[in-house]
Description:
The protein has helices spanning 6-29, 40-54, 81-95, 125-141, 156-183, 188-220, 239-295, 298-302, and strands at residues 67-76, 100-111, 114-123, 145-154, 222-230. It is α+β, with helices and mostly antiparallel strands. It has a 5-stranded mixed beta sheet. Strand 2 (100-111) and strand 3 (114-123) form a beta hairpin.
Amino acid sequence: MRIGHPSALIAATTALLLVAGCSQKSEDASAPQAEAPPGHDAAAAAADAASEKAGPDIGSAVAPGVAFTYRYAFTLPAKTISGVQREHAAACERLGPTRCRVTGMTYEQPREDEISAQLDFLLAPDLAHRFGSDGIAAVEAAHGKVDNASVAGEDAGGAIVLSQQNSASIAAEVARIDARLKAGGLGKDERAELTRRVEDLRAQLRGEEQARRGKEAAIASTPVSFAYASEGLLGSQGSFGKAAATSWGSFETMLAVVLVVAGYALPWLLLAGVAVLAWRFVRAKRLLARLEAGAHSPAAAAGPASDS
């Protein structure tokens, strides 16, 4: 290792001497104790390095019995969405049907530059985190970005334990009633009531068993959902792009309100216009009638009186 500065060399030398002294004291103090197996430190270091490379993870060791659901929302250029979606589906196919399955897919394009899509997976729990990280990498390689990512968890293990306890209590009650029925000495009504009670309890047992199977399936597989959306005409990053997008959205809202108001008001405006035209027509007709009557009157026919 090369150290370019003298002060750094002095500091490094001092640290080495201190470590050596502490190591010697530690060996003297722990002489009676058993030594660690050979290669133990190397294995631990390799495990730590692998953990750092993989990044933070939520696995069975961190939260045993928890059923997780991963959701990711991506924004990409419209022309790259279909390719990235196919790449994600192909990555799942390479894992095999026992480790990853596509459970749903949508692709909508109402306009040329406006696309929304979704891809749903069901993965083995130990692959969910890595699959999401690889999916993000594919999106970023296509000049996209992650809008949001969330991980939701359900304590399915606790629900299974509670269901088992309920089933044990119900089974004990069924056994008690069965013993009472076998003992005899019951009236007809009492026997019928106990029989109905046993049937209800056994139905509850079947329901508890079905619920446990659902929780066990939730622990055994992890749903992962990828949602894709196009950037849009004004979807560029930065404050100007956001301001333009906000302005365009406000304009669209205003235009929609104007059209709605116009849709309600237009019939009444047309009716008012027809009424005004009819009134003007009647008025003009009356004026014309008065003018014609004045032109045919005797006074108008004699003309003005002459001076004698």
